[in-house]
Each structure stands twice: as structure tokens, then as C-alpha cells.
Amino acid sequence: MELNSLQDSDSGYYWCAVEIGGSPDDEDHLYLMVSADPAVSVINSSVSGQEGGSVSVQCLYSAEYKYKQKKWCRFKVWSCFTLGRTDTSQNTAVLVTDNGKGSVSVEMSGLQKSDAGWYWFSAGDVGVTVHLTVTERPSTETTTLSSQETQESVTTPEDTTCSGTEKPK
User: Fold this and answer.
1) Which of 20, 61, 83, 107 has the fewest other C-beta atoms within 10 Å?
2) pLDDT, tens digit only, all 169 positions of the chain
């Protein structure tokens, strides 16, 4: 579910439930605070990277949160990373750095498809969500085509080079 065009007056408790077969099977509630001047925010709330690659998320916090603990958490398994570098069991490294001037940088490298999903940056008791998409790394293959007349070599995708020689007639 996504809520758009929220205003300060939309702050309050919200209830969410999944209903299967006529009665709620799973439910939860939360308090949503909407603020025109948020305590924390991110430059981009949706990021994407390729398998094996990296992504960087720039998180911002207001001065009143300078000395609060900063966390980068994954919703799926509710694991959190604090300042410093952490190597995960899935070979993805997470580096969280705070410049002390209202900005935290989160870098995830060695991305796996399983890293895709929702994350949460928090400073103290306030936070903001970020969605990560991980795309397949394009395959790199070399194909050589040859005939009596022409020989071509093609490499894909990033370093696309084409070379050919033609026999004199």
C-alpha cells in the first residue's frame, strides 16, 4: 500500500490487516507522523543496482538528531546495521557513515538478487523507507562469426566492440 499527498493532518494511528476467507488473518497498527519539515529524509526513496554491483543511499537528518543512533534496517528480516562496515552472510557488504553534519551515507556492495526489498533508515525514533531493486547482471559473452568473406568479433554488453576484416576481392 502506498499513501500519497499526505499532510500534517494525516498523522495518527493506522490499522492494516490481511483478510483471507472473511476474517482478518494478520493485522498490525502503527502511528504515522506526517511533517512538512521531516526529521529524517532520503535523497532518493527508490534505488536500483545490478547483481554484484553497488548502490548508495544518502540519508539526511535534522540537527536535533545529530547525537541519536543511526540505523539502516531491512524489513524482511529486521536486521539493522549501525555506523561502520558490516559483511553480511549473503556476501553483501554494508557501509554506514555519518558525516556529523546531517548526512548519513549507506553503501551496499556485492549486491545479490535476494537483497531487493524494503529498507528503513532511522535516527533515534524516527525513520524513512527506501526500496531497493536488484536487476540481473547482463551476461558477457563473445561470439565469433566467420565466413569466407568476413570475420567479426562482438563483445557485449558494456564494452561493445566490433571489429572486422574483409578479404580483398
Assistant:
1) 20
2) 677 888 888 888 888 878 777 766 777 877 877 776 688 999 999 999 999 999 999 999 999 999 999 999 998 888 888 888 887 666 689 999 999 999 999 999 999 999 999 999 999 989 999 999 999 988 776 666 555 544 444 444 544 444 454 445 4
Strands 40-42 and 54-61: antiparallel
Residue 101 and residue 62: Cα distance in Å, rounded? 9
Q: What's CA 155's distance to the chain center, in Å?
A: 29
Distances (CA, A) of 126 to 31, 38, 87: 11, 9, 25
Strand, coil or helix: 156: coil
pTM greater than 0.70 (yes/no): no
